[in-house]
Amino acid sequence: MDRLAYVARRLLLVIPTFLGITLVCFTLTRFVPGGPVEMRMMRLKGLAAQGGGEAGGAGSSAVGAVSDEYRKQLEAQYGFDRPLAVQYWDWLVVKKMGMELPSYDYPNKTAWQLIKSRIPISLWFGLASFILTYLICVPLGIAKALKHRQAFDAVSSLVVFIAYAIPSFALAMMLKMFLCGTVEGLGDVFPLGGVSSDFDVDPTWWVWFKDRAWHMVLPICCYVAGSFAMLTLLMKNSLLDQISADYVRTVIAKGATRRRAIWLHAFRNALIPIATGLGPMIGLLFAGSIIIESIFEIPGMGRLSWDALIGRDYAVFLALLALTASFQLVGNLISDVLYMIIDPRIDFSKK
User: Fold this and answer.
1) What does CATH list as the number for 111-342?
2) FRET partner for 301 with CA separation of 20 to 30 A, picked from 50, 127, 161, 194?
3) Which pLDDT belongs to residue 131?
4) What whole-number distance in Å separates Cα of residue 271 and Cα of residue 128?
5) Which helix or strand (DSSP H or E) is residue 256 part of?
6) In angstroms, what is the C-alpha Rg of the chain?
7) Nearest by Cα to 211 from 198, 200, 220
8) What are the boundaries of each domain within the chain?
9) pTM (predicted TM-score)
């Protein structure tokens, strides 16, 4: 019952946390200068200045009058003329976290329509990177812990730290230069960017899958490199701490083999730090990477959020924020549940 009560409390905590995140960001978009109203006004003044340059002072006064009237119309159009609490309630409840609001840059599409078109692509890269990261880093960390201070540990540490030292954007540019034919005389193995090729006829499922996988190789390498060193060393150090713990020596002293003590006792407890890091990883499945998606021309969630922020398309930006915050909070809850499963000794009763 203590565990169920703890999960219930964590679920209830999600609600005020989500409201706090979205309310603060929503308020900032209404007071930060350079919003959609200001940008539309700047375009209007630029066009008026070009067309009325020969009209002199009369043209300038006309521009000012039109600007004031047009500003009020724009504020009413975007709903900025209403009280902040009313705007937030309309965004959160009536427009379903802004998903039904039309985009400022693409009036023919709602925020959800734009997001929905990018989610599958971000999921492809996010899930593939997530699975590969854990499939590679966890076994590698275990192997490094079991071969601590041996040649394998030293060589693998060198490779891991080199991969960690290279920024993701630099790695992406190097891979494109050496493997995509951007420099004459170097390899032309992988496509320059995008997520699929242009087919003259509809491809079979297998042909489509191979083409998609071929486009994903270099971006996923950049995705994995970002968390490669951290997760590997976390797994190694966690397992080393458990192996040197007193309870492992006690198990061995009672007659168990070292292999049995490690895999049946130390390994389970070593997974606790790995499980607690799953929450942020789940959020990143949908958030995408702005830099990698821009370099490889991937139309994912990261690129959409960047375009929305630069273009002051707050309708799309806030909808993306609400979605990623929701996934992040759910991911943190999943981490807590996994923590309970891995380590049943935790006492969740109130003191």
Assistant:
1) 1.10.3720.10
2) 161
3) 86
4) 21
5) none
6) 27
7) 198
8) 2-94, 111-342
9) 0.79
